[in-house]
Design brief:
Largest sheet: 5 strands, parallel
Number of helices: 4
Radius of gyration: 12 Å
Strand order of the largest sheet: 2-1-3-4-5
Mean pLDDT: 89
Low-confidence stretches: none
Strand content: 15-25%
Distance between the termini: 21 Å
Shape: globular
Length: 102
């Protein structure tokens, strides 16, 4: 079972991803948050295998949250959820320790 945390400040986005991922037998959504701070706290508390996170979040950005999560738990695969594919976002996110972006 792959344990997943969703972090996006738009509830509709989280709901959509939750419904898509729930169709897969090997995925389990173990937590959801709406800010970078939520992402960091959930990653530490729940120790998910994957954390899907928006780059643009209130408070701590997804980029900063990914950096902190990777420093605390390098085994957690952080993947960005973003509509931005232009430089420097994808490159900076990968440099911060993220596994990739969608």
């Amino acid at each position: 079972m792959i344990r997943i945390v969703l972090v996006d400040d738009h509830e509709l986005v989280r709901t959509g991803f939750r419904h898509i991922l729930a169709r897969e037998a090997d995925f389990e959504i173990v937590g959801e948050g709406a800010s970078g701070e939520d992402g960091i706290a959930l990653a530490r508390r729940l120790q998910p295998d994957v954390l899907l996170m928006d780059l643009h979040l209130p408070g701590i950005s997804g980029l900063e949250a990914a950096t902190r999560i990777h420093q605390h738990d390098p085994d957690c695969k952080v993947i960005a959820l973003t509509g931005h594919n232009e430089s420097p976002f994808p490159r900076k996110f990968i440099e911060a320790g993220a596994a990739g972006y969608v």
